[in-house]
Amino acid sequence: MYRLVLIIGIFCLTIAFAAETNDIQPYYPLEESSSLQGVCIPSRINIASSWDFFIKGGFLYWNAKKDANEYALSTTQPLNNPPVGSRALRPKALWKPGLKIALGGTINRDAWTVEAQWTYLLGKAHGASNAPRQGYLMPLHISALSRLAHPGAQNISTHWKVYYHTADLFIGKPYYLSSWVVLNPICGFRGAWIKDKLRTQLTAITETGAVAINTLTETFNQRMWYLGPRVGINTNWLLGYGARVFTDFAGAILFANGRLSKRATSTNYASTLGYANNEVLDLRAKKRNALRTNFNAAFGFAWGTYFDEQNWYIDLLVGYQFNYWNDYLSGISSTQENFNTNSGSLYLHGLTSTIRLDF
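Predicted structure:
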């Protein structure tokens, strides 16, 4: 929380400074001419230098969650009885820092912009629980074979990680809708690589209710990559003195390809069956192709100003961003019961602060 207060405080100070020192709008229109009559005037950051390049660096503080991430059912029923009146246990998603980097430029003719952008986040969630008195925990997201050997647990812990990478390449055409509103429709491509890892550990219960010296560790991995077209529209609502409010919306339809794998180790159960190294399960599914959709939205405040006789321009943005990946898992579980892993959607949201430098 203190990081958020610090960022908002710095942002407010920059706007206060701008009100005294800067009277240039952040988006400078091209000169009107007879050839532009009847069309919207292009908008651009008008650097005196002939390079017209820009770089961006962003700090993310996001939270990542996914559907169907419950790791156990907690019930007060005796072992092997149906878990009537059970309570689903979910891991707690953690807020984690991330990174965003972009490079782009402005084409002199009609102020078209080209931008390449990369985003990275390592999302995490953790959960742990003990069975209630006179009851047990029913583990979820473990294989059918493991469930037969471990129908109930005295305690369960789970650790989930998502390695999130996206790369975007797009062009835009910013223009003035009015004196105080700038629209920038964008079109391009999105690529992504997402790795999902779920690790479950439990201590089993015998049928008599005593804790057995029998532990299970099961790890689920999925690696997926995505590629497809992406379109959107970015809007800047100019407030004066270099300040503005921005809203961004975009969506993509992506070709997805990936593979699921699962590996389980168990102490006593593996020894009883004569398995080496306690390994009782090692599954690897075939690669799967699919179409998936992705949507994202953002809103916030920004301020920018020229300096060094308009040879440079600096822009500061603070906003909140939402990302939605529909059914991002490959859905292998629907055809292979041993994986016992529900497909679901991925949600990422959080604070985004960005600094942009034009030169």
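Summary: Residues 13-26, 28-36, 331-340 have pLDDT under 50 and may be disordered.
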